[in-house]
Amino acid sequence: MAKAVFLDRDETLNPDPGYINDPALFELFPWVAAELARLKKAGFLLIVVSNQSGLARGLIQWKNLIAIHEKLNAILQQQGNVTIDDFAICSHIPDDLCECRKPKPKLILDAATRHQIDLSQSFMIGDRKSDFEAGKAAHLKKSFLINPGDEPSFKAAIKEILETSLI
Ligand SMILES: [Zn+2]
Q: How far is the CA of 146 from the centre of ligand 1 (A)?
């Protein structure tokens, strides 16, 4: 079975000016590509798990979201020779009471089914409590709550994942 690191997107991988709907406004934090390359080399699938309520609010269009993720992968490819394997997106607003919005674990669980992922050998990294709770509810090996847009806590999480997975 595969193992994965599930990654929140906004403020974990990229600055978030709010409801990004234009690839031109999307940039990765400069430390991300090299770190994700280390995870990929260690055999992890990389799966972005993101609440994008701007879709339901009409502030983000799916075609633009797809273009943004193509840019994300193009930057990763250029800077780290690595790409995200899958994007799991909740398009709903909280009032929709959907089954997929984090902190619910459904996006993670469905991705695990798609990619035959062993959740007990997998991890979550995110900057919000909802990320942490989703990882916990999916019974991952560990969920890391990092500081928003923060290089040291992001790198510390990656380091611990790599060390833990050697055992
Ligand atoms: Zn949803």
A: 23
How many angstroms separate the alpha carbon of residue 14 from the centre of ligand 1?
A: 21
127 and 148 Cβ atoms separated by less than 8 Å: yes
Annotation says 16 is catalytic: no
136-163 residue pLDDT tens: 999 999 999 999 999 999 999 999 999 9
Determine the distance separating the centroid of ligand 1 and the alpha carbon of 95, expressed in angstroms: 10
Residues with Cβ within 8 Å of 45's Cβ and at least 6 positions away in sequence, in order, are: 2, 3, 4, 5, 85, 86, 115, 117
Cα separation, 164 vs 32, in Å, equals 20
CATH domain 7-148+157-166 topology: Rossmann fold (3.40.50)
3-state secondary structure 127-162: CCHHHHHHHHHCCCCEEEECCCCCHHHHHHHHHHHH
The question of whether 118 is a catalytic residue gets the answer no
Query: How many whole angstroms separate alpha carbon 84 and alpha carbon 82?
Result: 7
Q: Which of 8, 118, 131, 150 is catalytic?
A: 8
Predicted model pTM: 0.97
Amino acid 163 reads E
Contact 155, 31 (CB under 8 A): yes
